[in-house]
Amino acid sequence: GTIDLLNVSFDGQLAPDRVSSLAGLKELQRISPLRRWRLVEIDSNLANLKEESEHVMSLIYPSNTYMDLNIGIALWLAASGDGWVNGQDGDRYKHKSTSRVLLVGSGADEQCAGYGRHRTKYRVGGWVSLDEEMRLDVQRIWKRNMGRDDRCISDHGKEARFPFLDESVIRTLLEIPLWDIAKLDEPVGKGDKKILREVAKLLGLQEAAFLPKRAIQ
């Protein structure tokens, strides 16, 4: 079957994540040409989402910050699967993904030092402070992220799955020394989530391996 790659943009084709998604599609097609990949481009404008915003606010409750709302709307729109695909003739066609299961990347930053504040903690207090911050992140992810994200996705009748929070993945990362997971003396886009970047390179995802982190909202 076809694997749908869902990308939400609030700035059309100019959004950095849209540019990255197009590059990512090409990389996936190159390293796995026998699979059928389809990039579904979901375009929206936050200024025109008043009713949707109110609905998403009810879904993300008790989370209620502007950041939570932005993340919730992005996930909710992605889960709708309602967007555009680029045809081989160069035209864009309306498309609604029928995928029932969505893979979500939550947990990667928390476990692999992907946040900017992780770099700050490391700079101020070294590995001990970084370890404390990351453990706190993992302990509270269910409260800060999981319920919110799952409700926004399941509102469309889709099931969210979180590969980075698989028990075997968590167990493996806990067994690896922190200095082998991240090297925060190195620049952004290289030292953060170092271990995942190395895996990406091994898989042939050379461009993706050097992408800097961007907030989902």
- Give the count of helical stretches: 8
Q: What is the average of the pLDDT values?
A: 95
For the record, give the distance between the C-alpha atoms at the N and C termini, rounded to a whole number: 30 Å
Low-confidence stretches: none
What structural class should be given to the helix and strand makeup? alpha/beta
Residues in helix, %: 40-55%
Q: Which radius of gyration do the C-alpha atoms yield?
A: 18 Å
Element string (H = helix, E = strand): EHEHHEEEHHEHHH
Report the strand count.
Answer: 6
- Spatial strand order of the main sheet: 1-2
Please give the largest β-sheet: 2 strands, parallel
Beta-sheet strand percentage? 5-15%
Q: What general form does the structure show?
A: globular
GO biological process, one term: asparagine biosynthetic process
Pfam families: Asn_synthase
Domain Asparagine synthetase: 124-201
Organism: Aegilops tauschii subsp. strangulata
Q: How would you sum up this structure in a few lines?
A:
50% of the residues lie in helices and 15% in strands.
Descriptive notes:
It holds the Pfam family Asn_synthase. This is Asparagine synthetase domain-containing protein. By secondary structure, the chain is α/β, with parallel strands linked by helices. The protein has a domain at 100-207. It has helices spanning 16-31, 50-60, 66-80, 108-112, 116-154, 167-175, 178-181, 194-202, and strands at residues 2-9, 36-43, 82-86, 92-96, 101-103, 159-161.
